[in-house]
Amino acid sequence: MATVTKENIGLLHEKLTVKLEKTDYLPSFEKALKEYSKKANIPGFRKGMVPSGLIKKMYGPSLFTDEVLKSVDRELIGYLQNDKLDIFAQPLPLESDFRQLDVNNPADYTFHFEIGMKPEFQLPDLAKAKTTRYVVTVTDEMVENEITRLQNRYGNMKDEETVTTEDNVLNVLFTETDASGNEVEAGIKKDNSILVKYFAENFRKNWMGKKTGDSENVQLKNAFDEKEREWIIGDLGLNKEDASSAERYFKIEITKVGLMEKRELNEEFFNQLYPNQEVKTEEDFRNKIKEEIQAYWNGQATNQIHDQVFHQLVDHTEIKFPEGFLKKWVKSQGETPKSDEEVEAEFPKFISQLKWTLISDKIVQDNAIQVSPDEIRSFAKQQLFSYMGGANLSDDQPWVADYVEKMMKDRKYVEDAYSRLQTQKIFEWAATQVKPADKDITADDFTKMVEEHQHHHH
Q1: Residue 26: which CATH number?
Q2: Which residue, among 233, 209, 237, has the nearest Cα to 221 in the 3D structure?
Q3: Which of 221, 269, 331, 451 has the fewest CB neighbours in a 10 Å radius?
Q4: How far apart are the first and last CA of the chain?
C-alpha cells in the first residue's frame, strides 16, 4: 500500500516522499498491456492476436512508466487534498528518482518531491495609514483654456492669403537640408500642420507676410522651444533622447495658410456638446466645463490614493517565502534551465510580483470580491464605445450585442477583462479603508509630483 510522508527541509520548504509497492501499479499496468494488445495494429499479425511478449517488448517500457507515474500523481494529489496543503506552483520531482523504473524488474519504488508552502500573513490596518487626497484647484484660467480649445476644435478653418497673426495655421512641408540649405539626398520629408505661435517667440516674425510657396531654412533648436521641439523631433521620426536631433537642418515650406474661426458661445454650440443637458447660457456652459475639469482631477486624485494604498500594502505587509523552493522552481521554468546567476537577477522582481499576487488573493477571499459575466459584458461595451470615440451610441443596437457576445467567447479577452475588473475592485475596496487627509494643490504641482513618482519607479 502506498504511503506519503512529509519532512521539513527549510522555511516553508517541505520534502514529500511517495513510496509505492508493486501492488499499487502492477494490476493497472497489466490491464493496460492487455487493452493495448487488443487494439494494437502491427503488420503481420491480425488485430487482437499479437503475442503479449511482443507487445510488452515494444510498448511495455512506456506503458509501465505511465502507470507508475499515474499512481504517484494519484497519491500526491490525494495527500495534498486530504491535508489541505496550500502550495506554490506544482511539486518539483527529483529527476534521478525516475531512472530506476524497469519494466522487466517491477519493484517497490520511492519518489521524492519538494513543495513550497504558501505563508500565513496579516494585512496592515489601512485605517491607520497616512494617506493624502490631493484636491486640485480648478482655476478660471483652466476653464478659459478648455473653452478656447473646444471653440477651436469645433471651429471652421478658412483659407488666408498671407500670414498675419500668430494664430494662423500653417500647412508645411519639412525637407531635410545641410547647413547651407541644400537638400539632403534620401533625407527626411514630412508634411505637418502648425500654429505660428508654436514656433520660438523670436522666430515667429519670420513668417509674417509670407504666403503659400514661401519657405524658411531652419535649425530645429533655433526654430522651436524645448516642448514643441520635442514634439516636432518625434513627428519627424528622429530620436528625442539624442541631443544631435535638435542640430538637424530643414527647409520648411508653406503649402497652405489658414485661420481657425472660433465657434461662437451660443445655445447651438452648447447643445452640440451637451445634448439634452439644459446648458443654455454661457454661465451654465462655464459651470459644466468646470465640473468636468474637476471630475477629471478628482479621478486622478483617486488614482493617486490607489497608488498610496498599493505601497501601504506592499511595504507594510510582512510575508515570508520559501525562497529555496521558489528559486529552484524559477530555475526550472522555460525551455532551457536558467543559470544560478539568471535566477538571482530575476528573483527580486519575481518575489515582488508574487507578494502582490498573495495580497490581492487575500483581499479577494476575505471580502468575497467577485466579477460577474454581466460586468465583463458591460466592460466590453464600454471599451467598444471608447474605441468609437465616445459617440452617443445606443447600446441596444443588435451589432453592439453581437460584438459583446463575440468577445465573451474569446477566452483570453475574458481572462484579461476579469483580471482588470478584479484589480479595480481590490483598489476600490482598499480606498474605502483609508482615511486620507485632504490637501489643496495646483494642477501643475500635482502633475509634477506624479511624473517624479513614476520616474522614481522606473
Answers
A1: 3.30.70.1050
A2: 233
A3: 451
A4: 56
Report pLDDT digits (tens) over 306-326: 999 999 999 999 999 999 999
- Record the cell numbers describing residue 190, joined without a space: 514630412
Q: Which of 207, 230, 261 is where one domain is finished?
A: 261
CATH number at residue 371: 1.10.3120
Number of other CB atoms surrounding residue 165 within 10 Å? 13
Q: Are 147 and 53 in contact (CB under 8 A)?
A: no
Domain co-membership, 342 together with 442: yes
Helix axes 140-153, 282-316, angle to 10 degrees: 110
Whether 266 is covered by a domain: the verdict is no
Q: Note the pLDDT tens digit of each residue in 157-210.
A: 999 999 999 999 999 999 999 999 999 999 999 999 999 999 999 999 999 999
Q: Are 327 and 451 in contact (CB under 8 A)?
A: no
Average pLDDT score over the chain: 92
- The verdict on 242 and 288 lying in the same domain is no
**Are the CB atoms for 80 and 117 separated by under 8 Å?**
no
- The 10 Å CB-count burial string (b at 16+, else e) for 178-203 is eeeeeeeeeeeeeeeebbbebbbeee
Domain of residue 379, residue span: 278-457
Non-local (6+) Cβ contacts of 137 within 8 A are 440, 441, 442, 443
Q: Please name the amino acid found at residue 378.
A: S
CB 393 within 8 A of CB 366: no
Q: How many CB atoms lie within 10 A of CB 205?
A: 11
Residue ranges of E strands in 21-108: 87-93
